[in-house]
Amino acid sequence: MILYILRRILYTVPIALAVGFVCFMLVQIAPGDPINAILPADAPKEVADMLRRAYGLDQPLPVQFWLWLTHVAQGDLGRSLATGRPVTADLANAVGNTLVLAVAAALIGFVAGSVLGGAAAAWRGTAVDRGAIGLAVVGVSIPHYWLGMVLVILFSVLWPILPATGISSDGSGSWAWDMAHIPHLILPAVTLAVIPTGLIARTVRGVAGDILNQDFVTTLRGKGLRPFGIFRHVVKNAAPNVLAVMGLQLGYLMGGSILVETVFNWPGTGLLLNTAIFQRDIPVLQGTILVLALFFVAINLAVDILQTAIDPRVRRG
Amino acid sequence: MGPTGAAPPHPDEIGGPAQPLLGVRGLVKHFPLRGGWLGGARGVVRAVDGVDFTIRKGETLGLVGESGCGKSTTSRLLMRLLEPTAGEVILDGQGVGAGGLGRRDYCRQVQMVFQDSYASLNPRLPVEESIAFAPRVHGTPAREALAKARELLAAVGLEPAQFGWRYPHALSGGQRQRVNIARALALRPRLVILDEPVSALDKSVEAQVLNLLCDLKDRFGLTYLFISHDLNVVQYMADRVMVMYLGRVAEIGPVEAIFGRPAHPYTAALLASRPTMDPDRRRTEAPLSGDPPNPVDPPSGCRFRTRCAHAEPVCAVTEPPLAPLGDGHAAACLMALPGSGHSRAPATTEAAHAA
Amino acid sequence: MPPDSANPPGAAPPLVHARDLTVRFVTRDATVHAVNGVDFDLAQGEVLCILGESGSGKSVTLRALMRLNPPGVTRVSGTLRVGGHDMVAASARAVADLRGGLVSMIFQEPMTALDPIFTIGRQIRETILRHEKVSGAEADRRALELLELVQIPSAKRRLAAYPHELSGGLRQRAMIAIALSCRPKLLLADEPTTALDATVQIQILLLLRQLQRELGMGVVFVTHDLGVAGEIADRIAVMYAGRFIEEGPTGALMRAPLHPYAQGLLGATVHGQRRGTPLTTIPGSPPNLERLPEGCAFAPRCPYTEPACLAAVPAPRRPVPDRAARCIRVPDTAQPPAGIAA
């Protein structure tokens, strides 16, 4: 088992390298000159050339990639073109904020989705099923930035019990577990949780429904197990598949919250990306995309290992 | 497709009636077992591990054995659905493969009927189209192929006007298996491999299909390789029987010899494992204990020794060759091999013949 | 098809008592008449084999005995008592208490009938803990005993094994161990040897016979295989289109079946017929269970059909005590005190 985990981790190295190369290249291919974006339109050409040399943008691409990679390996993602601050520090703060939001949204989504989907599977074909699945469809169909604005209007304007935007009421730009921050988390987390709720509900219903149709469930009923006893078996059998979808969703939540973070002015990776894109801030873009992609790889690795731990049939030397 | 009666010689006939239709020499198929370090192989499944036999023209060779004995792999190797690891196949004197008979010519002469009647038909084609498909691929004009398909439907007992346009899901299991038989016959093959053709059918339908297979064999001058786990069915259908165990031939011979005087203890155990329909003659003891071992790591020497009541130390070191017992009967058992060192081995060759 | 007065004073009540047992599957699209009036009694320690082809209703009948047919679409009527409990009217909770305790079941495919990601030991243990107030350690000890009872070698190690780590024969033995874990009075077996190799099948049949005798269980065994029935059954009931069309002691029924369908089935089964002689076959195919014919369901395929066959479903007729067949050609000479289907 330990050997398997080690091997699995080893496999992720080339994947991570490829991810790094792709996000490096994507930014290179994108149109627009980053130097022009930070200089005023009437800046002399010599200044632009000098800046280009200073940032290494005049070197051939492979050299740029190699330079970038060696720096990345040392935790140096360069300096932002727009602010001049080190990318790593800004990114660390943003990743921390997004992680809080994503994990909160994931918890809400996974719990609500599992309950809805589980109920739909247990009472398949009844009103419970139709109601739960109707909710799930609404969840995946609603544009979440619109839902965010509606929630703000409802709970911050019409019935002001929660703050509308920002991460804190004391002006700090990073997260802390105190009463100045926690109320700020509720609306964005709920907004962000709606899509995963719907997806998880549908997945759980499908997976649990398939399991309930399997022969061994008849055996369990034949042994006299009560619904709760059967439930335990269904949960463990459904876990590998449901975990895979959950891992994917957590990955999306880490990077896919640009719109929601913008609506709620949440200083996370989404907001960082948004700003970087408009300013053509290549080091920030590269760094952010790389970190998000590596998160994806790490989550997949974790899901793989969890699946292997749960299901003895996929266990390998 | 002539009317009923003795079939005329097949157009592909070359070697004369005495030459075996199919010869198999040293056939081996090992499947690599994935999942080793860095995705490499961590061993092989010895599905078929050195098999020799012949099928005579016009006979039915029955092939029996339990799961993992290699009977399905053998059939797929003969159909060239799998590439053998080693060994050669000879069809009517011609080698098959590089330098010999081409794949296309070979497949025209050797056809197969599978156990799963539904999975082996295209669900989106009317059955007559399925039957006509192979002849069209082999160059028969569409109209002619369809006409021939309808003839074949009639030959397997399905009214073409009533069944030809139907899709597989609209037929019963027995009817679908009839369609599969018609499909296998469409290229006018010489050898038909029947891989558990009646195992998925109900008893009353099984009898219908077995009767049909006997009819068709006479009518079209076919040769059968009949694979089944049901010894009663093999006894009824086969002229000769081959028993396989863990990728090797345990015993081969005329059906009367195999069922009447089994020489290999495994064959005897298989026969004795058949449930009886007479409650007064029930078994009191199982002939064998345990399941067949895993073909990944077969026992040394005789592969059957781990379940054999007569195993002796010599069985662990000597791999028994097929010992001839006369009349084409042969068994891979040291007890049948004169001078093998087993205490029950016949002393001389004469003794073996007298047995 | 025993007479109504099946309980002469003083005799033990039958383990299973079924009268006019009917099972339909009702969906929006169709109603399938799977079981259409089955009557039988099973004494304690008796082995009844229900023999039939696919779609005959044999498995549905078996599952009805512990109410295991799919809930929601299943409609059961008639009388069904198992160990004195009314299995038609009892609450779901009461039935769940009986399952695995009084009555338990083994299935055709042990690979899919066992939970793939729970060890064999846990699957036995949870059955014991469900029905008996014992400690976990006691349940584990019993689980080990059970694996030894079903003759699984190195039982202790096998407790920790997952189903896919066992061979087909061992998996079926483990399935039997689970079914026996609370000493049931009635064991239901749904083609438990069909998926097994020949040399393994006979081992499992012998094991079941031995356990049945040692534990004194009643067994209802469903199969399509006459040979399997011959090895295990005291009595055989042949089922066709949801009815017992013939019932009798194994030997007598096998030697001289009364009903034309049973005769056809025996004739069509290959067992030592001479090569070259065509096998007897039954023409046609079984009836559509959504639209059963009036009268005898076998009439459309029967070589002896006469107008009376089509008028009404033939009542069981008894040529000798202990045997019965639903065919009007069978003489009714051993009329019991009161016919049940009258």
TrEMBL record, chain A:
InterPro entries: BPD_transp_1_N, MetI-like, MetI-like_sf. Residues 95-307 form the ABC transmembrane type-1 domain. GO terms for molecular function: dipeptide transmembrane transporter activity. One of its GO terms (cellular component) is plasma membrane. It is found in: Cell membrane. SUPFAM superfamilies: MetI-like. It comes from the Bacteria. The chain crosses the membrane at residues 9-30, 99-123, 135-162, 182-201, 242-264, 284-306. Keywords: Cell membrane, Membrane, Transmembrane, Transmembrane helix, Transport. It is a multi-pass membrane protein. The keyword Membrane applies. Belongs to the binding-protein-dependent transport system permease family. This is ABC transporter permease. It comes from Roseomonas acroporae.
TrEMBL record, chain C:
Pfam families: ABC_tran, oligo_HPY. Residues 16-266 form the ABC transporter domain. One of its GO terms (biological process) is peptide transport. SMART domains: AAA. Its main location: membrane. The keyword Protein transport does not apply. PROSITE patterns: ABC_TRANSPORTER_2. This is ABC transporter ATP-binding protein. It comes from Roseomonas acroporae.
